[in-house]
Amino acid sequence: IAGITQAPTSQILAAGRRMTLRCTQDMRHNAMYWYRQDLGLGLRLIHYSNTAGTTGKGEVPDGYSVSRANTDDFPLTLASAVPSQTSVYFCASAPVGGDATGELFFGEGSRLTVL
Amino acid sequence: GQNIDQPTEMTATEGAIVQINCTYQTSGFNGLFWYQQHAGEAPTFLSYNVLDGLEEKGRFSSFLSRSKGYSYLLLKELQMKDSASYLCAVRDSNYQLIWGAGTKLIIKP
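The joint structure predicted for all components is written out below.
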């Protein structure tokens, strides 16, 4: 049982470098999300996708981009990393429609440090 | 603006009962969620309330009052493994989740 997988689990990178965090789910969930979690703050939504082929901006989208070419994959790219992007990043997915409550299923997280 | 308030930290004793409160002010309401997050791990779903009242699931119960913008998570027969952060989240009229900062629950023997 895989569920939702993120990679890498941890990464240190220099400011200015480009970085892609990968996220794959095998639950055939329509909706996928990227959050960042910082100490003392709630989860903040970066980008989301309600279905393959569509994406939307969340609360803190600047400096990040996403794509949703298919149902399973939802990568998050930092075009030019800055120290303020040091955080723990969580990918999540949710079933939509029918009797689904819309509960989120989270990946294990990617801890990113930008120096 | 939209806001979710919950206590930053609580301490309780093993075997006891603890209630974690959550108050919210959001643009519309389409359900309230509670998640558990152990240190260094991902959040996991605990409960969902969309109608007023109490939802019970084993040792955990969640209560909702939409008119008061209030929910609580009740944990009974506390175990050491219940030491974790508990996150309250509300789905607004746009079906976006608004998250509280979480309540860190410390269980002492």
